[in-house]
Amino acid sequence: MDNAAYVTLTRMTGLRREMQVVANNIANSSTTGFRREGMVFSEFVIGAGRTEPSLSMALGNTRQTYLRQGALEQTNGAFDLAVEGAGFFQLDTAQGPRLTRAGMFTPNQAGELVTMDGHRLMDAGGAAVFVPPDAARVTIARDGTVSADGEPIAQIGLVRPEDPVTMRRAEGTLFIVDGAIEPVEAPAILQGFLESSNVDPILEMTRMIEVQRAYERGQKLLESEDERIRSVVQTLGR
Predict the structure, then answer these.
(1) Alpha-carbon distance 165 to 64, whole Å?
(2) What's residue 171's pLDDT?
(3) Same domain as 23, residue 50
(4) Domain of 56?
């Protein structure tokens, strides 16, 4: 296989991965707290000798998460929370700490605020947020202070990675941080709101069409290269 085919195959592999990312974005355009992803392409250059030009290949093997704020929708739910600005809720899961912007919580049988998957919401000190079952009214202030019948009982903390590059998607709306995390100095939490996905379906559909066309152009180039090589072999074999 010649260099042109290698370069084209490398490019098509990255485009296939990008198509998967775009498809996942579209599928989660209505998922609360979902963050859009994109594919980052890097260039790999290798020398081919003094008499030959260098060989350049495009590699698509890194995903980038876009943290742009999603639209805030009012639900009036007592345990529906939205982050305004920077920061993530910290969850305690069976796989370890996870970060999320999806703020749909509900008290479990023990009175702890949990996600629909049972992951516990952590307070500023790293403990589970407990709400008394007999509380008639629960309010959550903008700074995350949780009050039951007017008495402060906990404070929800928002955190963020010290280095955004160390954050990667674990699954769905959950993120894992490979480095250190730090508290958000001025947290802004809105009770009775949820943050929508930051995916723009129209832009993603447009990108999907562009990626598909680029992939098809690569296929046509491979087919023409294959035909050229067959023609050369047949000519030399006569």
Answers:
(1) 9
(2) 87
(3) yes
(4) 3-67+199-236
